[in-house]
Design a protein that fits this description.
The structure is a homodimer of 423-residue chains. Chain A is α/β, with parallel strands linked by helices. Chain A has 3 domains: 168 residues, Molybdenum Cofactor Biosythetic Enzyme, Chain A (3-Layer(aba) Sandwich); 77 residues, Alpha-Beta Plaits; 160 residues, Maf protein (Alpha-Beta Complex), CATH 3.90.950.20. Helix content of chain A is 41%, strand content 25%. The first copy, chain A, has 15 helices and 17 strands. The first copy, chain A, has a 6-stranded mixed β-sheet with strand order 2-1-3-8-7-6, with helices on both faces. In chain A, strands 14-13-15-16-17 form a 5-stranded mixed β-sheet, sandwiched between helices. In chain A, strands 10-11-9-12 form a 4-stranded antiparallel β-sheet. The longest helix of chain A has 28 residues. At the A-B interface, helix 2, strand 2, helix 3, strand 10 and helix 11 of A face helix 2, strand 2, helix 3, strand 10 and helix 11 of B. Strand 14 of chain A pairs antiparallel with strand 14 of chain B.
Chain lengths: 423, 423
């Protein structure tokens, strides 16, 4: 089936906010096996919204709208959609009660215009919104399915996942079932070339690759009569991918990030961690501390941007800085060792590099970054060459550091296990 | 005039990338006084792109397209646009030479399909692309202006700023001239209420507010015969805004970020800085280190997420942690003092708070954050209550910390100057 994604909001037209809703919905729809040919953005304007709705109804089976369900007179997505589809509105008592309860919980006063949010088109499916006051709405008319969701991502995303996605899954006979495999330590083109034969030969399941900074996500999607059948179709493909990418796969769970995988690995091995950052200036620590529950493993982070700080705070020797320069594998190693020593942590990471735009030379160009990781005294170091601006180089460095931490911990234990631990 | 923003690319339709180009162009167009009623996203597909172009030509004066100018057969924005506008294509020699030079500089081999990028519609304006191989193109036909730009933001943005924006400025008699005023330490609704009378009474210049995390940007836009006249119109409005917002204005320059303003203030006063972060886990340091040239002022950053780390690394007393708890104004102050002491810096910031989702209580709910700033021994502390998820609370904390740093430094010097310095 064909889906069209329509974002309603003057703030998007004015460039006040980036349209992340459309990207989110587009990725989800691709995962559901729906074809998306157009995305539209339109303001809170009756005439123009009518225009967009009519065009979309003429070329798509499913319309996913977000935004314009607020309590003010400006918000008219629901009213215009009902009009275009020829539906009257009525007061939906359960929504009215939910709105009253929401305000009571927040200890806020209800103003009269809030009841507007409890008005819904006749014959529609009303979706509960535990994160806000605008209920979601699904209208079915002439084989078309029009879904209205609130604009704020923290309301729209849970509503889509809990109610809209299951609904969309019922529209076609059979179901679409996806599994994501997340890979680190391999670039997108290398990852693609490693499974070119699988991608070329694919019919059902299909494999799609998504490049993220320092990661590649593979989404394997099967279409089948039921979930059991779909999982059966996925099984051999997932097995083949696991055998090709091995330890580079850090998770097969949708909601596990790379930093979470690293923190889980630290927790599982009862290891503590510290970070010593120069060019990334705290971004690695910040990503680790994204993970709720990291306090069990995170000891201390040091941001030693200057040479002086590298010397005085974590004990990198002056002679070493002079001989090799701050951006060198030797100094990266000393930073990691210093982190482990001063924070008394089992694992420590040192990052030093040239993020640009200044500071590069022929010998050490912008984008050159050294990352060292110490695991229980065993230090490995990685030389990276990143492209892009200052922000991009720093982001890539953090992703590479997380990837190296994972590799180093796995390598340490595999070697300890097999009795060949190096000093 | 009316502008329509069209993004071409299957990767946007699949949700593989977020459409930041549209947000960028929309904000710029608003600044140019152009009205944007629709944004569209369409894939690399002849029939559907034709459809979008025809619709846009029927309702807008200016079409801004980005994407689909690459060398492969998939990329057909230029070819389809030429066809819709009835233009033949020819080989544009200067573009061919530029492409050859680009490949030579990058020491890459040219493949035959690259010459496709030097083909342009007859009668068009060709825009040089120093950051890639796809030239930009402007076609004028029947009073319509169609602008084609490459998709990668690092090619599109400089091309828009250097060539497209000046071109758009010539389309209407007179010019549009904008100035941005960036404010911190005041929320959006408060900022709006402080200038409600100005916004209500506005005709030319106009004032628009843009809410960013922890900041508000005001854009004042004048329409006039020439730049001199526009500046004359802006002057009294800017003066009035300056008198209303005073020291809360941290810059009137488009390209100065809050972290840059803080670093500039540190540089101007010959002050060094250190950071001690708990819940933000390095994000404040990372933002300061966004600023190229920060090495002059940044001494050391400490990430002391655990109580143990707060005690051992920066000397917060155990008794104090027990008496007040880690999230308290007292501990925030000790963190700032400890940072100044151990890093030997003039300015130091301590941040401690509950970012969630866990760890909140009735007394200390999720979103409660204390930020302390020490300037040459004088410490001030701020209690903040942020809403949103873990990432949002942390982001808001960092913005508030930058704002407090600025305030504290300014207050310190104003009091030193007027002889009323407190201990």
């Amino acid at each position: 089936m064909i889906v069209e994604i329509i974002s309603v909001g003057t703030e998007i037209l004015l460039g006040n906010i980036v349209n992340t809703n459309a990207a989110y919905l587009a990725e989800k729809c691709a995962g559901l096996g729906l074809s998306c040919y157009y995305q539209d953005v339109v303001g809170d304007n009756e005439e123009r919204l009518t225009d967009v709705l009519k065009t979309a109804l003429s070329r798509a089976d499913i319309l996913l709208l977000s935004g314009g369900l607020g309590p003010t007179q400006d918000d008219l997505t629901k009213e215009v959609t009902a009009k275009v589809l020829g539906k009257n509105m009525y007061l939906h008592e359960p929504s009215k009660e939910a709105i009253a309860a929401y305000f009571q919980k927040k200890r806020m006063e209800i103003t009269d215009n809030n009841w507007k949010q409890a008005m819904v088109p006749e014959g529609c499916i009303v979706i509960d919104n535990p994160n806000g006051t605008a209920p979601g709405i699904i209208i079915e008319e002439n084989g078309k399915h029009v879904v209205l969701m609130p604009g704020p991502p923290n309301e729209m995303i849970p509503m889509f996942e809990n109610a809209v996605m299951p609904y969309l899954n019922t529209l076609e006979p059979g179901i679409i079932y996806s599994q994501t495999i997340k890979i680190c330590g391999i670039g997108e083109s290398k990852a693609e070339s490693m499974i070119e034969d699988l991608i070329d030969a694919q019919t059902n399941p299909t494999i799609a690759t998504y490049a993220k900074t320092g990661e590649v996500h593979l989404r394997v999607t099967a279409k089948a009569e039921d979930e059991k059948e779909a999982k059966k179709l996925l099984k051999p493909v997932i097995k083949e991918l696991k055998s090709r990418f091995g330890n580079h796969i850090y998770t097969t769970q949708e909601d596990v990030t790379l930093e979470k995988a690293v923190v889980d690995l630290l927790l599982a091995n009862d290891l503590t961690v510290s970070t010593v950052e120069s060019c990334t200036g705290g971004m690695l620590a910040a990503r680790l501390i994204n993970v709720s529950g990291v306090s069990e493993v995170f000891k201390t982070g040091y941001i030693t941007y200057s040479n002086k700080s590298k010397r005085k705070i974590i004990g990198v020797k002056k002679a070493m800085l002079q001989k090799y320069g701050a951006v060198s594998p030797e100094v990266a190693k000393e930073m990691a060792k210093g982190g482990a020593l001063f924070a008394k942590s089992d694992v420590a990471v040192g990052i030093t590099g040239i993020a640009g735009p200044d500071g590069g030379s022929d010998e050490k160009p912008v984008g050159l970054v050294y990352i060292a990781c110490s695991v229980c005294g065993r230090v490995s170091v990685k030389e990276c060459h990143f492209s892009g601006n200052r922000a991009k180089v720093r982001e890539s460095s953090v992703a590479a550091a997380l990837s190296l931490m994972r590799e180093s911990i796995l390598a340490y234990y595999s070697e300890v296990t097999f009795g060949s631990k190096k000093s």
